[in-house]
Amino acid sequence: MKQSVSVLPKTAVSRPGARRRPLKRTEQRRAVETRLAILNAALAEFAEKGFDAASIRAVANRTGLQHPLITYHFRNKDILWRATAEYAFGRIRGEWDGLEETNVGMSALDRLRSEYRTLFRYTVAFPEFHRFMRQECTTNNPRLRWVAKTVVMPLINRLLPQIASLQNAKLLPLMEPIVFHYMMVSLTAMLAEFGPEMGVTSKLAADDPRVVESYWQAVDKMIFGKSVRLPSTREQGMQTHGAAAAVRRSSIVTSR
Asked: Domain for residue 147, yes or no?
């Protein structure tokens, strides 16, 4: 049996024969904010502890919400994990969609470069995302198979034809397109993966704008042949705001 888990609240359930009254706008906004708070807390919890050690009660503690309120929105831990995965990948998809809307006419190479740069910027801002996925990639478990089929492959299938086409045009290094993709994923996740260790060994912060800028300049030049300035903090904020609005309009579907 499948359940639709949406970032938008459900309307109130009416008595048989009665007219259904939509929730007031303030109630709808509060429900959306509650669900987003739960999903962000769940992302941090699963990223830190993994699925087995994480708990709904710990997610409740992170948000300051009562345990029954968490289970009202997400009935069990598996449903919460799946909703969290779709929420995180939905944000990336929303930012990629925003690129297509705001960068009409860009070259194929610039489009692919922008998509990976967006993924990099997201993992720097939300390192929990990379750690969340890393927790599941150590074993061939049902959650990994589900997330690969449901949310990862649609994004990969969006990228692979672009990679193959650019390789045929001799604009990208030759290798299997899927291998190229995972090479780029590892490069985009470097600061998220090694940031804590780097802070101890060098006192550098992985989210320092100078570190972020210089690192991606090097990656961009090494892979795509030239360096391109990352968007400014103000530009990133405008893009993130637009992507967040797109995510709020989307729904998250998971299985019960």
From this structure: yes
The CATH number that applies at residue 37 is 1.10.357.10
Number of domains in the chain: 1
Pairing of strands 251-255, 2-6: antiparallel
Overall pTM surpassing 0.85 (yes/no): no
Q: Is residue 63 part of a domain?
A: yes
Whether 39 is covered by a domain: the verdict is yes
Structural domain of 120: 2-10+24-249
Q: What is the pLDDT along the chain (256 residues), one digit of tens a residue?
A: 444 444 444 444 444 444 555 557 777 888 889 999 999 999 999 999 999 999 999 999 999 999 999 999 999 999 999 999 999 999 999 989 888 777 778 899 999 999 999 999 999 999 999 999 988 887 788 999 999 999 999 999 999 999 999 999 999 999 999 999 999 999 999 999 999 999 999 989 999 999 999 999 999 999 998 644 445 444 444 444 444 444 444 444 333 3
User: Residues 97-132, buried b or exposed e (16+ Cβ, 10 A)?
Assistant: ebbeeeeeeeeebebbbbbbbbbbbbbbebbbbbbb
